[in-house]
Design a protein that fits this description.
The complex is a heterodimer of chains A (461) and B (439). Chain A is built from ten helices and 29 strands. With 461 residues, chain A is α+β, with helices and mostly antiparallel strands. Chain B is built from nine helices and 30 strands. Chain B folds into three domains: 220 residues, Thrombin, subunit H (Beta Barrel); 98 residues, Pdz3 Domain, CATH 2.30.42; 98 residues, PDZ domain (Pdz3 Domain). Chain B is 19% helix and 40% strand. The chains are: A alpha+beta (461), B alpha+beta (439).
């Protein structure tokens, strides 16, 4: 009887005891967060970027949030990765491993010397996969800037809302962690990873504008939204095998647009969602399976698309369902075409060459980076990929000869000096020969922009 | 002293000539035009009023003005004569390419009220020289019967604007007279006259924010267009889909003799020129055997006009140089169309639409011309509530293709008679979305 009373007393005391332990929990969990600095090299400049990352294994593998790297950059332009522990001015070298298509995470691995000091976030995973309760107190870590040695600081909040976007995402009352950094409960269990912050609408008044103008503010240093552990832990093994994140599953149903509840009701689609396929891409698995533009996708492998809010989330849901599969896997799509319901048997394939994989070469005297024409360009330009040739002006140096002649970024170069371009190599060779010839006063490009062409005369002297 | 006075007299002589009989007569032929026109832009029919100028051209009361003053959208045209009496008028025809429109005064009304007017005469605009004195007469800012004086600043100005006349294309087929005679809003459609009172141009536009840079359509162009419009059927032009560019400085690259050829900058996809095999980067050497010289921008409109003047459906022979080779291409012309299609408002839906034209479809890389483009929605009306917005292209209503304006008008009429939800398929930036318009 006596001992029983004692247990009861201890149980009642437990929360207070745990609260007192926060400094200890904090110190331990700080070993799971790092700041990652790297340089992005473009044709004319070199720029440092800092992102926050979470440690996922004992080899010192770190995941950075999707926004850490500009999608226009190719991995070759990312240089000198350095990993810093919070509060440290001394970084150690890191290696960029690539981006995973499903999660969007960028993977970096810290040198072994630092890896020993780090603690993977899995150390703090909860025994159960339960979601945090509404109003539950949560805390996370923020990191200051480099000039303050990435000093860590505490953020505390409460869970205000949990939604499927389509990933299960909690929104806290206020900022709870730096983007990409972990969030914990009071027991120190890992709850999730802070996502890019939500934009918040404000009305800005000024002396000039007394009626106020709406502005959306996004806190880029801290976030109040975090993807729950169940969206994080199962994917930690998706360390890319290469910097481009291949293999990449490809369906080829392009421009998926959600169907709102009114339209669903009109089409007598009860309690389920659908997406319209704007375009079926040339030569894609979707085309081969007989999909047509304007088909409505109703179900994947027999599972009706869930009702998600906001409506547009369902398009992301379909895309993720493709990304989570591998090339070669089968996917059964139920579609509505007019009045008919059809089942299309798709076999996913490897995604065509990406823009980040495209070859590119910078010609400084001309002021132009020529990039290989890839499948994505054909989609953007609305031309047949099978027959399109030429190169893309990936970068045009401001006030350089090509820029002065009127060439713009993303222009499609079809001919050089009246010679139709075939391969990237041939185009690069031709440009290199022009650049290497000091006597050359000018040359002529035929470029296409928005379906119209123009002849541009580029003066070299 | 005497010499100076004599000189003063000599200088005064041209000024006296300005007050010639001819000049006074032209003053009496200048009119103010008050226009009430309908606009469909905001998902509703709205009326707007504006003021322009014009000049009476014939004893039977034809009035010449700008296309951006009087267009088919005008629902009420009222002309103020030199006597300050107002007479109603109707639109005979317009041509936005040259920014000209012709009105007909209500002659029975003129006779009934015993009103008098004079008419002006065209002068030879091809003989104008830079520095020649000209006068602009019109209604700047509603100030009736204002004359301003200047000189011809340039008699062959190239100025093309794909949206220059209330969103319609202008300037591809004519060059302009440039003058420093003050041209302000409201001068539009008024005549530019010489000292002897001959109409040599129609004042049309000024550069906003610039000083004394005014433009007028030359009489040589105006005369031709008036002849076409007064017959009432409008002006029909031919189109082949060749987008030219001045060769300027590229003769060496294309190994051309000086003053020969015109550069094909672009060929519209699917156009007659594209079908005939014309390619961008080609050099057009001759049209139906006649040599063309498109070295400078101001030489392009006459060449374009030559193509446009061919009868629709006729075959043009293009002599084309491509690399070292010269070939002949036969191109069958099509009727020239504006990018701006017919407009309408579907009032119960609060939705303004414009028919997709061939030129619009091409410009926006649409696969077909089926569909109507949303040009405005009225807040709170079904189209707005459903989420449609300006720029969307409606391709289907109730799962039927919108192959004409009448098709969507029909569905709207049915909705008006018996309101029931309507399914709309539209695309925005080539992304297809479905909407339901609810009563």
């Amino acid at each position: 009887m006596k001992s029983r009373v004692l247990t009861l007393v201890l149980l009642l005391l437990a929360p207070a005891v745990r609260a007192a332990e926060l400094p200890a929990l904090w110190a331990e969990r700080l070993a799971s967060v790092v700041a990652v600095e790297f340089y992005t090299e473009s044709e004319t400049e070199r720029r440092p970027t800092v992102s926050y990352g979470t440690v996922i294994d004992r080899q010192g593998t770190i995941i950075l949030p999707p926004i850490a790297v500009n999608p226009r950059l190719t991995p070759g332009q990312l240089k000198e990765f350095k990993v810093y522990r919070p509060g440290s001015a001394q970084g150690v070298a890191g290696v960029y491993l690539g981006q995973d298509a499903l999660t969007g995470w960028h993977f970096v691995r810290a040198a072994a010397s630092l890896a020993r000091e780090l603690a993977p976030i899995t150390n703090f995973a909860a025994a159960t996969r339960a979601e945090p309760a509404l109003a539950e107190e949560v805390w996370g870590i923020g990191l200051r800037n480099k000039d303050e040695d990435f000093a860590p600081y505490l953020l505390v909040s409460r869970v205000a809302l949990i939604q499927s976007l389509p990933q299960r995402t909690a929104v806290a009352l206020q900022e709870v962690a730096g983007p990409g950094l972990p969030v914990f409960n009071r027991a120190g269990e890992f709850l999730g990873l802070a996502a890019t912050s939500f934009g918040q609408s404000f009305v800005q008044f000024s002396r000039l504008d007394r009626s106020g103008a709406p502005v959306i503010l996004v806190n880029v240093e801290e976030s109040s939204a975090f993807q729950l552990a169940a969206e994080v832990l199962p994917h930690l093994g998706r360390v890319p095998a290469n910097v481009f994140g291949r293999p990449l599953a490809w369906l080829g149903a392009h421009g998926l647009q959600p169907v709102d509840p009114e339209v669903a009701k009109f089409l007598r689609l009860d309690n389920q969602s659908a997406v319209v396929v704007s375009e079926v891409l040339e030569g894609s698995p979707a085309e081969q399976a007989g999909m047509k533009a304007r088909d409505l996708i109703l179900a994947l492998d027999g599972q009706p698309l869930p009702r998600l809010k906001p409506d547009r989330v369902v398009a992301a849901y379909v895309e993720r369902e493709v990304e989570r599969r591998r090339p070669g896997e089968a996917l059964a799509l139920t579609v509505l075409r007019g009045e008919a319901r059809l089942t299309l048997a798709v076999v996913l394939r490897e995604e065509p060459r990406l823009m980040s994989e495209a070859e590119r070469k910078y010609f400084d005297r001309i002021g132009l980076t020529a990039r290989e024409f890839v499948y994505g360009d054909a989609i953007a330009l609305r031309v047949k990929a099978a027959t399109a040739t030429g190169v893309i002006a990936h970068f045009v140096k401001p006030n350089g000869p090509a820029g002065v002649a009127g060439l713009r970024t993303d222009d499609w170069v079809k001919e050089i000096d009246g010679v139709p371009l075939t391969t990237f190599a041939a185009a690069a060779q031709q440009l290199a020969a022009i650049e290497a010839d000091p006597q050359r006063p000018e040359f002529v490009l035929l470029v296409s922009r928005g379906g119209e062409t123009a002849v541009l005369r580029i003066k070299l002297k | 002293m005497l010499k100076v006075a004599a000189l003063g007299l000599a200088l005064a002589a041209p000024a006296a000539a300005a007050m010639s009989k001819g000049f006074n007569r032209v003053l009496d032929a200048v009119v103010r035009i008050d226009v009430r026109e309908v606009a469909f832009e905001d998902g509703a029919k709205r009326f707007a009023a504006s003021i322009g100028s014009g000049v009476i051209l014939s004893p039977d009361g034809l009035v010449l003005t700008n296309a951006h003053v009087a267009s088919p959208r005008a629902v009420e045209l009222s002309v103020t004569l030199a006597s300050l009496e107002r007479v109603s008028a109707r639109l005979v025809g317009w041509d936005h390419w040259t920014d000209l429109a012709v009105l007909q005064l209500d002659l029975p009304e003129v006779q009934r009220r015993g009103l008098k007017f004079t008419h002006a005469e065209f002068g030879d605009s091809t003989r104008l020289y830079v520095g020649q004195t000209v006068y602009a007469v019109g209604t700047p800012f509603g100030l009736t019967r204002t004359a301003t004086r200047g000189i011809i600043s340039n008699n062959n100005r190239y100025f093309e604007d794909s949206r220059g006349v209330n969103g319609y294309e202008t300037g591809a087929f004519n060059t302009w007279l440039q003058t420093d005679a003050a041209i302000n809003p409201g001068n539009s459609g008024g005549p530019l006259v010489t000292e002897d009172g001959k109409v040599v141009g129609i004042s049309s536009r000024g550069y906003l924010g610039a000083n004394n840079l005014g433009f007028a359509i030359p009489a040589s162009t105006a005369q031709r267009v008036v002849e076409g419009l007064r017959r009432g059927a409008g002006i029909t032009r031919s189109y082949i889909g060749l987008v030219p560019r001045a060769l300027q400085d590229l003769e060496n690259f294309y190994a051309l003799a000086l003053n020969t050829g015109l550069l094909v900058n672009s060929v519209d996809p699917g156009s007659p020129a594209a079908r005939a095999g014309l390619r961008p980067g080609d050099i057009l050497l001759a049209l139906d055997g006649a040599k063309v010289d498109g070295r400078f921008p101001e030489q392009l409109p006459p060449i374009q006009n030559l193509i446009a003047s061919a009868p629709v459906g006729s075959t043009l022979r293009l002599t084309v140089k491509r690399g070292p080779l010269t070939t002949e291409l036969a191109v069958v012309t099509e009727k020239l169309e504006s990018r701006v299609g017919e407009e309408w408002v579907l009032e119960k839906w609060g939705l303004s639409v414009r028919q997709v034209s061939r030129a619009f479809a091409r410009e926006n890389q649409l696969e077909t011309t089926a569909g109507v483009c949303v040009i405005g929605v009225q807040p709170g009306f079904p189209a707005d509530v459903a989420g449609l917005s300006r720029g969307d292209i409606i391709t289907k209503v109730n799962q039927q293709p919108v192959d004409s304006l009448d098709r969507i008008k029909g569905v709207h009429a049915a909705f008006e008679a018996r309101p029931a939800p309507v399914l709309v398929e539209a695309q925005r930036n080539h992304q297809v979305t479905l909407y339901v318009l609810k009563p």
